[in-house]
Specification:
It holds the Pfam family AAA_33. The chain is built from eleven helices and five strands. The protein has helices spanning 2-9, 30-42, 53-56, 60-67, 78-83, 85-101, 113-117, 143-153, 159-163, 165-169, 194-210, and strands spanning 19-23, 48-50, 105-109, 134-140, 186-189. The protein has a five-stranded parallel β-sheet with strand order 2-3-1-4-5, sandwiched between helices. The relative contact order is 0.19.
Amino acid sequence: MTSQASSATSPAAPPPPVVLFITGPAACGKSTLAREWVRHRLQRGDPWTLIDKDLVGGQHGPRILELMGADPNDRDSPLFKQEVRDLDYRATLQLADEQLRLGGSVALPGPWTRELVAGLLEQPEQLGLPAVPSVVVWMSLSDAERRRRVEQRGNPLDRWKLKHWAAYAKGSRDGAPPECKGPAPVVLPAEQPLAEQLATIEALVARKRAG
């Protein structure tokens, strides 16, 4: 009798962990979408962890640049990409690895451009993560709208972008994702209503969890 009662009240098994990469150019809404996704799933009893690369590197990155005599607000120059960029990503992946091994799903907003082009995002184990299902989306935004958003938000981290816009935007393909060695990411128009973006991700995650 006790065994039957215990079985009847035992919690349902949690859904299998998934890693969600929300990629795309600056100012396309990656972090905003990731926050809304985590909130959306939490309300449905499926908690996720949000690990935003910009927040992970928000303390050590500026200090490293300052010690090198560079602009602590730089996030785009060749110096930043050579000395700081990979530290930010490795720290983000370390945190994601811990959550995934505990059985939790993670949302990782960020450009992830090198990893996307190399075809690594579809194979999390190649990034040092557990071999869990991976969902990769690219938020598409035209160059003109992207620059307008960057100028409008007035973020000090965007100064290098705006000062060197021609170099920064070179090869951007006007919002289309870069050519990838692996499968192309699912494209989400950045100006699409949030509810539609969430529905697309929900369907992708459900498909991956179903195997």
